[in-house]
Amino acid sequence: MIARDIDTNKAGEALRQNDQYLDESEGISLKDLVLSIWGYRRAISVLTLAATLLIGGIGAGIYLFQQKQHITRLQFSLDFDGVEKNEYPNGTKFSTSDILVSPIINNVYDINDLKRYLDLAEFRSALSVIQTNDNVRLLEYEYAPKLDDKKLTIEQRSRLEAEFLEKKKSLLVPIFNLILSGNRSVLSIPPTLRVKVLQDILSGWAEYADRVKGASKFQIPLVSKNILRKEDLDVQDYLVAVDMLRTTTERVMSDITKLQKIPGAANFRLQGNDVSLQDLKYRLQDMEKFKISPLLGIIRLGGITKSDEVTKIYLQHRIFELKMKEEDATSREKIYEDSFNNYSQGTRSALAGVDSGGRLQPIAPASPLTANVPSTINQLGETFLSSIIKMAQENLDAKFRQELTQNVIKEALGKVEIVSDLKYYERLFFELSKTEKLKSSSIVADQVRSVVLATVDQVYDTLQRSIDVINALYEGLSKANLNPASTLFTVKEPALMSEEKSLTLVKVFSSVVMICLLVVGCILIGVLIFHSFRRRGAPQLP
Question: What is the distance between the alpha carbons of residues 99 and 177, in angstroms, rounded to a whole number?
Fold first, then answer.
């Protein structure tokens, strides 16, 4: 009897163990995980300590035995307007990468003969530009605990935020460090030469920004003296040469009009030259009226040409070209006008209906805005809501209408200029065709040619001098309104030289901690996997 009870108890205990094993195989509880890990706490501690010592030793070795970098640092600030928007004073885009562009680096490398110490690729990789501002960091550290105070009222927090932003704005001076860093090759460069290299890079960038980017000049395209060469005039027929001078004069006067839009241009004069833009424009207008136009009249009435056929072919080609331009301008103008009319009619039909008297009557269009409007809106009147919707739609298409109108006006004005030039060349061709040509050997013809050639030379020289004055006025206006190249940057302090390790102690320590945490996680996972395999060998009922 007793033996049978013992067997029954053993069987029940085995069943309970088997049920517990089955329950554990279906799901793992947090308690089981903790107990499993606790059972292997000694092995986990030993493995963790060993891994920590090993990783820490490796990290310490890397930090202690790493090669030091020799750093030369030159701190400077950017002082030109627009730097806070990453723009040069003239509005073109600015980036710190402009300081280290290839033309500047190559030039500095060559003029300092740095090939004695390192190659060009190594020199380029050793340079960098880093922005820094310790004052802003200190300000952020100062206000961080104040702004984190939960006892602050809304008014106090708003006042603190406004105060912080105002101080931060005043401290946001763009300060940069131009850095030359490297190992033995950089150290082989003499210290004074390293400093000179950094200064040359900044000076080269200022010149590059002014010459290539136009940092200290307004973005206004102007003609240069190369627009017309004297030898090109000499080979042309007299009428063609004078017409080239007339066209060049109009282009120069157009440049004057562009410069007159610059602030302060009306009263601006160069030092030592009392000529203003308006004075120069009057001079060119007088030259066109009293020299170029009479010269064309002399050629036309006297029939003075080097080749009558060449002159007529030139005029015919100009007439043909202008007629083609007139047709193109007319087509574009019609397209804009038709687009405007079609758009206006479509909008008007969408916004209005027709009453019994044939008059336009506003209609409120279906809209999601009015689909679920409460019935109480009827107190305001139906016409009120219709007027509001109509006004909103009219405001939306006002800009489109304005653009179409401006395009129509632009094409119409361009067409007026084309038609004016066309009539000019047609009249010139007509007069030249009916004029009796002077004999090439006559005394009058020789005198007329002499006058034509002398006047052409005078007009050409005047245009060349005028272009010089215009460019000088342009330079002066740019310097008066924009920062000159010499003040694009300011060196804040003398160049500093130091030896630094590429991996700082903070970086090494944080890396060691992260790796240790990862290893500990791997140890825990390994222990759980080992425990799982070991538990599968537990006794089960057959």
Answer: 11
The answer on 76 and 206 residing in a single domain is: yes
The percent of residues in the chain predicted with pLDDT above 70, rounded, is 75
Instruction: Decide: 51 and 519 in contact? Cβ < 8 Å.
Output: yes
Residue 76 and residue 202 in one domain: yes
For range 362-367, the mean pLDDT: 43
Q: What are phi and psi of 509, to 5 degrees?
A: -60, -45
Q: Residues 303, 445: contact at Cβ < 8 Å?
A: no
Helix (H, G, I), strand (E, B) or coil at 102: helix
Q: What backbone phi and psi angles, to 5 degrees, belong to 362?
A: -60, 140
DSSP characters for 54-91? Answer: HHHHHHHHHHHHSPEEEEEEEEEEE-STTGGGTB-TTS
- In this structure, the answer to whether residues 186 and 79 fall within a common structural domain is yes
Residues near 451 by beta carbon (within 8 Å), at least 6 away in sequence? 298
The conformation of residue 499, written as its DSSP 8-state character, comes to E
Q: Which of 109-123, 170-184, 437-451, 482-496 has the highest mean pLDDT?
A: 109-123
Q: Which residue has the tokens 């094993």?
A: 21
The count of other CB atoms within 10 Å of the CB of residue 248 is 21
Q: How many CB atoms lie within 10 A of CB 463?
A: 21
How far, in whole angstroms, is CA 501 from its chain's centroid? 36
